[in-house]
Structure formats: C-alpha cells, structure tokens
Write a structure and sequence with these properties.
Two copies of one chain form a homodimer. The first copy, chain A, is of the alpha/beta class. Chain A has a domain of 289 residues: TIM Barrel (Alpha-Beta Barrel). Chain A contains 14 helices and 16 strands. Chain A has an eight-stranded parallel β-sheet with strand order 6-7-8-9-10-11-12-13. A four-stranded mixed β-sheet of chain A has the order 3-2-1-4, with no helix packed on it. A four-stranded antiparallel β-sheet of chain A has the order 5-14-15-16, with no helix packed on it. In chain A, strand 2 and strand 3 form a beta hairpin. Chain A is globular and about 65 Å long. At the A-B interface, helix 2, helix 9, helix 11, helix 13 and helix 14 of A face helix 2, helix 9, helix 11, helix 13 and helix 14 of B.
Chain lengths: 441, 441
C-alpha cells in the first residue's frame, strides 16, 4: 500500500491496482502487472485482482488519462529557457542560440535532458521524440528519469562532404549505442535536421540506413515559407518532393511543423504513411505566419500528433498548454470554431503520438504498457466537471497532474518526484556555466 | 511570524515585511503598512522596519510581481466551464449558453463568482473588471474572497423601451448598492453589453449617468467582423463612431476585444483616452479571425490591458496563460516575432490593467496598495532563471504562484487558501443543479 509522500518508489514495477479513477466512460479500475503492462481496465476490473496487487492506489479523487506523447522536442534546450526571445529568426539563431550551442558538452545535455524529463513528468508526458546533440548523454538522462523516448542524432552536413562522413559515423555510433543499451523504453531514430541543412546525399543515406536498421526518421518539414521558397529556388521542387525522392517519407517518419504544406502535399504524406508533429506554440512564437493545415491532413488520413518543440521557442514542455493552443490556433487561423474539437485534440496528444512513435500505448487498454497519468479531479480547473475532455484540453494545464506511471513504474506520486531538487540545482548550474563559458554574459 | 499552512490569516492586514524577494532589478524587501499600502520597497527597505513588522515573510525563494489585473471577464461563468465548446457562435449562444443563463439565480452567481475569485487568487490575479447579472451577489462574493473588483451591471435592452427602463432602474439600484457597501476594494461600473444589444438611447443614458456618478464604463467593442458589418448596415457607421456619438468613449471606459478596429479607430480611442482589454484566448477559441491591432493602438498611445473573458470562451481565468497566448498571437497574426515582447506583455497585465481600472497599483512602489504576488523561484518553469520576465510570460502558468496579497491582506500563503474546499463543493453543486433545472441534462 502506498502512502503519501515521501514515498518509497519500487525500483522495478510491482503489480499495482488503481481503484475508481474517473474517465469519460465513468469510474474504472486499472490493473498493472509486474512487467508494467495493463492487465485489466474497466468498471470492475479490480475485483479479481484485489488480493494479488502488491500496491493499491486510491484513484477516486482523480481523472485517469493515457500518458501524453510529445512527438517533437529538443529536450536539453531547457537550458536555454528564457535566454533569448522576441527576436527575428536569423539574428536569434546566429547571435544567440548557435553561439551558445557551440559550447554545449555532454554533461550539459545530460542535465538539460534531466530537467526536461522532470518537466515532462510533472506535466503528464510519458513519452517523447527528441532530436539534439550528445544523444548518448540524453539517453542516460532518459534512463535515469524512467521515461520513454525515441532519440534522434541531429544530422547536419550543410552540403559538406567531410561533415557528412562525420555525421554518418556519428549516427551509426549512436544507433549501435542505443541498441546495446537494450532498454525497451529507449529507441534510436535518425534525425536529418531539415532539407536546408542536410544534402540530398545525406538524406539518401539516412533513408537507406533507417530502413536497414528498422528505425524511425525525425525531420523538420515546411516550417517556414522561406524554406519552401528556398527549396524551389535551389532545386525546382518544394520540400516534400525533395524528401520523397530521397526516400525520407515513410511510415516510420515523423515530420515536424508542416505549416506550409499544400493540399497535394498532405495527400502525399497520407499515401506514404508519414506522421506529422504539430507544434502550435513554436509556430506562433516564431511567427511562421501559417497554421498547419489540419483539415487537409485529416482528409488525407495522415496521422497527426502533437509536440512542444524545444524550450527556446516555446518556452516550456507542457503538453496541456500545447493542446489548448493547438486547438485554438486551428479555429482562429482557419476561421472555424468547430475545427479540431477537444476530443480530437486529446487523441493527437495520446493515440496520435503513440502511433507516430510506434508505441503500443496511447489508450488505457489491456495489453498496452501502463503509461498513465492521474489528474486532480478536485482542482479548480476541473470544477465543475461538466465534461472531462473539455476540462483537460481547455481548462487545465500540466499542474493538474498528480501521479505519473511509465511502464508501470511510478515516476510521480501526489506531485512528489524523488530527486527533483538535485536536477533543478544541477541544471541551473550548468545553464549558468554554459552562458559564462560562451562569453555571453 | 507566519508559519507553513494551515496559517492563521489576519482578518485585517497587520504590518508585514517581505524579505529578499527577487525582482528584475535584484532582490528587494517590501514593507506593507497596517492599512495595506506599500510603505517601502527596495534592496534594503526592510532594515528600519524589521523590529516593527507584525509579520515577516521570507521571500528569498520567490519572485515578486505586482498582482495581475484581469480587465474583462464574466466571473460567474466559471459555472459553465466545459459546458459547451467547439460550436459555431450562434447555435452555441442560442442553444447552450442563453438557455442555461436564463435559469441563473443570485445564489448561482455568488458561488460562481466565489469559484472565479478562488481561481484568480490561485493564479495571481488581485483585481478584475466584471460584467454579468445578479451583481449584488457577485459583490458579496468579491467581499468574502478579499479581492479587488470593478463590477458592471450588464445592460441589455435589445431596443425595447420597457426593457430599457428596467435596465436603467437595475443599473441605478446596483450602483447605489455598491456605493453603500463603502468597500474601497469594490467599485461600480455601468456595463452596456455591446452596440448590437443596447439601443442608442440606452447608450446615451449610460454615458450621461456614468459621468454624473464618476464611474467606469465597460463594453464589448468590434469583437467580430459581423458586428462591424451589421453596424454599418443598420446605421451607416462602424461601432466606434456609434459609441463616440453616444458619449461612451471616455477615459473611464474599458472596451473589450477591439479585434476589428481600423487604424483611424485606434487613433480615436487614443484621443478619447479609452482603455482596451485584449482577450486573445477567447478571440482564438471563437474564431474571430483577426487579432487586436496592438501596434496601431500602441502608436495611438492607447492604454492596452489584458483580460481572460468568461470561462465559457476560455475556459479558465489564468492570466499567465493569457499573457503567453496574447504575446504569441500578436507575433503570429501580424507576422513579426518582435511584436509585443515579454516586458510589454507583463506591463499590459499589471500597469495597463491598473490604469484601465483606475487603481493606484500596478507597480511595487511606496504608496501603492500592496497587491502583490510571489512566484516559486525554484519551480521547473523558473529553471534556469536567465530572464525573470521571459519566464513569467512564456514559461510559467498560474501554478507558479505561491502567495497572494490584496491590499496587504494575505489571500493565499504557500498555495494554501482558507475555505477553498467549501467553494469547490458549493460551486460544483450549483453548477450541476443549474444544468438540471434548465432541463439540459
């Protein structure tokens, strides 16, 4: 039986029974087996399990949801939170972000990713797709935090052959490393940054390599109008066609942003089985001037998911905030208050994300990994409770999350996360040191 | 000396010293006198005050800000949170909102406003401008909660003379009632709903009456394109011109929304000294299809402030969320990442709001009422702390707020609010009963 905090968390998941948590279809029990999978879920699912469960968790004060899935972020950029805002894109990148990033080391990325994982746990995200540098260190952080992640080595060759060879070796080394970890929660992905930073030779190689290895592809696509214009100017093709010719558009691919797709390109992504990561907060903050065409993607049967992007263009990793902003932006930009209603938005953040990351989870269903979150049913944001899904998407933010499980392991209990203090202190220290080292303060 | 919660809150403010709270200009002490005003504020302001202060509050783990000011809401609509979303405007109003509102009574508005006040305290708002029905009951709720408010009797005559006479008597009765309360935290305002619900005769009377009484005016203005079109069709004038001819545009006026103003209308508002309440979340959710032209209003010297609108079109009262969405929406819609930077946005929510409500507060300065909030400096959203204002606007939400003072009275201490449980229970109950009474469930 678990008590209030401080709690002794089991290092390995024991069998667990969550009793009477509220869902859209009424209160349910959720049984979690000792391998961290959902054994049973339903109104009376706990009846036969009661005697056996090693832990029993009273869920009656809570709303149960599948853990949220963040399909596009650069986790360690938490270190840059608030470092530079409200600037035009080019000076922001060249005068602020890149100079700082050039001084990053593996220790920075470890603590930045730990901070990101802490924030994700606190706000109900149980799985994420990441793209950054020093990804072996990011993997260490994910392992320590207990989350689920698909990690991508950010591949940038800028058309330079020597740099390309380095990136190829770096990608191979990283993928071997992740496979050797043999952690079912951590998978490798290739990460061609974008068409404007990776040569077509690089894209070809990555497509081929990801196919051989059976791993995912993570790329930025048609984020800005500039990207589309430059692509047409450089090679007479818009970005999706370039990627398609290089073999990058596959059912293993997550394409982030996709603000500037036309209707035919949405159909192409549908045909190729690509998943899209919608990043509304980042798109608004960086003034990309067009919202991802959700209605065309939906029409084309594209799997749409949700991502926060990195903290330098957001500036947090709260998927609840992202759900609300994302639903609002569609209505506002495409001029329809009925577009992307709450229930669809919640699907983007759960089942859409699970499908994009090719996880078995995304719903509270027997056989799925127990990636679960419990929200405070009596929080102000859930009062009154006319409609759970509406409150989740439009009223609550991540602070409503009380308890988080990933693969059955309890990562946060009644808002208590073991080791939080150390992560906050170390991440603050490396962030400050990074700015000093870069001579930026 | 105040301890952790549960805390004995002083019914009347005693003198108080907040020690070492962080601000943009470094750590400061804040001395609050026994009448609830700021006596001194600065790096060493507490030195001479230490012996005298009845209460001492350690602020070293916190960031101090002026209390936020919400300049446009319909507080009791918290009862409708999540009741109806994702619908076109007309059926949403006529099939959902109005049928429910027609069953509202004073007890509903009391508990709905108590819930709103609870939410505002929890998320760092210390003053608000409200427009709704049963406003004597709203005043009782504000009094009990300890917040500051300017309350408007929502005036709607629909061009009907008999209804107009009722509304005039209702307005007069309400203003007399509020003046008789003689509570320095609660002021009356007239509340012509909008040009499409109030006759020009009604507008004339309200302008005249508010002038005689020296009280504020609160109105919706140019929220939708439809409103502008209908106005031109009905009387050959756009909405601001109608209001100006009726004497409604004054330095005592707060005009909410203002999405569809043209540049000349922004100048007119500037000349008349009108304050504007920007409501980005509501505008996006209801798909008004144009963002308030902040750059023109700024050019014209208009005082711009920030509001959440009511919970049925938001669906919360978190001004932190509103600040972020508001800054992002300007950048996105007007296509400039430099528009409405964090520091200006924080001004809208503090000094802009204080000016709109004609309060003496809005900054942490001696002589101002001690309307103050303390944020958790060690929250994830404040880690790292490269830039306080950026974290406040772009990273944090209302859950970072730990302690709230209004007129020197402590309304929340370390996230503890006395009586919270009862408000949540009673508000839930009246909301459920309202839906049943209206036969809507």
């Amino acid at each position: 039986m678990m008590a209030g905090h401080p709690v002794d968390f089991p290092e390995k998941p024991g069998s667990l029974l969550i009793k009477g948590a509220l869902t859209e279809s009424g209160p349910i029990d959720i049984c979690v087996d000792e391998d961290g999978f959902i054994g049973a879920a339903g109104p009376d699912a706990g009846r036969n399990f009661r005697g056996e469960a090693e832990y029993v968790l009273d869920g009656t004060g809570s709303v149960a949801l599948p853990g949220l899935v963040n399909t596009h972020t650069h986790a360690a950029m938490t270190l840059l939170r608030g470092y530079a805002d409200d600037m035009p894109l080019q000076p922001w990148l060249s005068e602020k972000i890149w100079p700082l990033e050039s001084h990053l080391n593996g220790d920075d990325v470890y603590w930045g990713t730990r901070l990101a994982c802490l924030e994700m746990i606190r706000t109900g995200t149980t799985a994420f797709k990441d793209m950054y540098f020093f990804m072996e260190d990011a993997a260490r952080a994910v392992e320590a935090a207990g989350l689920r992640a698909v990690l991508s080595y950010g591949f940038i060759d800028l058309g330079n052959e020597q740099k390309r060879e380095q990136e190829i070796r770096g990608t191979e080394r990283f993928v071997r490393h992740i496979k050797a970890l043999d952690n079912p929660r951590i998978k490798a992905s290739v990460g061609p940054h974008a068409i404007y930073t990776v040569s077509q030779e690089g894209l070809f190689w990555l497509a081929e390599y990801s196919k051989e290895e059976g791993i995912a592809i993570h790329i930025h696509l048609s984020e800005t109008e500039q990207e589309v214009r430059d692509s047409v100017k450089a090679c007479g093709m818009r970005p999706p066609e370039v990627l398609d010719r290089c073999g990058i558009l596959t059912p293993r691919t997550v394409a982030a942003h996709c603000c500037w797709l036309d209707q035919a390109e949405c159909s192409l992504l549908g045909k190729r089985g690509v998943s899209v990561a919608y990043n509304p907060v980042s798109n608004m903050k960086l003034a990309v001037n067009r919202a991802m065409p959700y209605h065309w993607l939906k029409e084309a049967g594209v799997n749409v998911s949700l991502g926060t992007d990195g903290c330098s263009s957001n500036n947090n990793l709260d998927m609840f905030e992202e759900m609300k902003t994302g639903a609002l932006l569609q209505k506002f930009y495409w001029n329809s208050p009925t577009l992307l209603p709450a229930s669809e938005m919640l699907s983007l953040a759960t089942t859409g994300g699970a499908r994009a990351l090719r996880l078995g989870s995304g719903t509270i269903t027997p056989g799925n990994p127990a990636d679960l979150i419990l929200l405070d049913r009596h929080a102000v944001c859930n009062t009154p409770l006319h409609n759970i899904t509406s409150n989740v998407v439009y009223s609550c933010n991540g602070s409503a999350v009380m308890t988080v499980l990933c693969q059955g392991r309890v990562l946060m209990m009644d808002r208590y996360i073991p080791g939080e203090e150390e992560v906050l202190q170390r991440a603050s220290a490396v962030a400050e040191d990074l700015v000093k080292r870069a001579g930026m303060r």
